[in-house]
Amino acid sequence: MARVFLVSENTLKKQTAINDNVDSGQLRSAISVAQDINLQESISTSLYNKILDLVDTGAITATTNSNYKTLLDDYIVPTVIHYSYFYALDDFIAKFMNVGLVQGFSEQGNQIDINVFKMLKNGARDKAEWYDNRLRDHLFNNDNLYPEYETSTTDGTLPAANTDGFMSSIVTDEPYHWKDYDPTCCKDRYKGFKEI
Known about the structure:
Blueprint: H1 9-15, H2 24-43, H3 45-57, H4 66-93, E1 95-97, E2 100-102, H5 114-141
Antiparallel strand pairs: 1-2
């Protein structure tokens, strides 16, 4: 099967802050990574391959596949768009050239400060995680519509992630390891821990 993109470069440009004059070839890598890493983890390899096959063959528009079409249009595409934008930002801050890794320069604009870049990356990640969580919630609550979602395999493919899509850290005043915390035992050991 040829490489299937669930989001076009033009859709990515229209739905994000990416300018129309950006070379579409630069965006394909970001879309590919977003699909392969984030989407596949969220929906499982089995459902991921099913969606790719339906899109590749054109069968996604058949009335018998209306649930998959809804999943694609309402949940998968927004998730892929925002993860693609998140990954594309890295390609815009620096480029690999013959002389090595370089930052771009233009007469039409100034380079941004690294703190501004971090702010953009954090904002892009937050949006992507929100859409990803929405996708996971939909699949969890409608798993009966997608039999491939719960298919587990032993051939190295990814099962669906059973967590939310948020990857942000939690900062506490005192260090402790959650895996070590047992609420029924040793409570005095975690003096900084406050129950909610």
